[in-house]
Write a structure and sequence with these properties.
By secondary structure, this protein is of the alpha+beta class. It has three helices and eight strands; from the N terminus they run βαβββαββαββ. The chain has one domain: Alpha-Beta Complex (Aldehyde Oxidoreductase, domain 3).
């Protein structure tokens, strides 16, 4: 499939499980797909220096982040034989247990879907300027360090 036009990736707040389910359901009519792979990033309630994380407050230089997401999308279509791809990343406060990143790829075969999804997630973590403040239960915070 041809790469698509630029789509907005950054969404306000958590990504609802129903949105994920609806995205999957929309693909049942696409009979040229043999495999999907999905990555869901979820906020953990880590304990840091004795304080429990209750949420992550995500921010970004949105124009630059959207451009990086687009570059990753185009590179993935060039590198892998994908049928389609969807990426959504939260901006704003996302509570522990909620979804903050949704990557959904489809291909004719499972190995291509597996490889593409993993590559896309690693590229996002390494190259997209989205920043998170881990907000503790006492409302103090620390900037999150991305671990690759």
């Amino acid at each position: 499939m041809e790469p698509e036009k630029k789509k907005k990736v950054l969404v306000s707040g958590a990504i609802a499980p129903q949105f994920v389910a609806d995205s999957i359901a929309k693909h049942s009519s696409k009979t040229n797909i043999g495999a999907h792979d999905i990555f869901l990033g979820q906020v953990r309630n880590d304990v840091i220096d004795g304080k429990t994380v209750q949420a992550i407050d995500y921010s970004a230089y949105e124009e630059m982040a959207e451009e990086k997401f687009y570059e990753i999308r185009e590179a993935a279509f060039a590198r892998f034989k994908l049928t389609c791809m969807h990426i959504y990343h939260s901006i704003g406060k996302v509570k522990a247990g909620e979804i903050c990143l949704f990557v959904f790829v489809s291909a004719e075969h499972r190995q291509e879907a597996f490889n593409a999804c993993r590559w896309i997630v690693e590229e996002i973590k390494a190259n997209v300027p989205v920043f998170g403040k881990e907000v503790f239960t006492d409302e103090t915070y620390v900037w999150k360090e991305n671990k690759l």
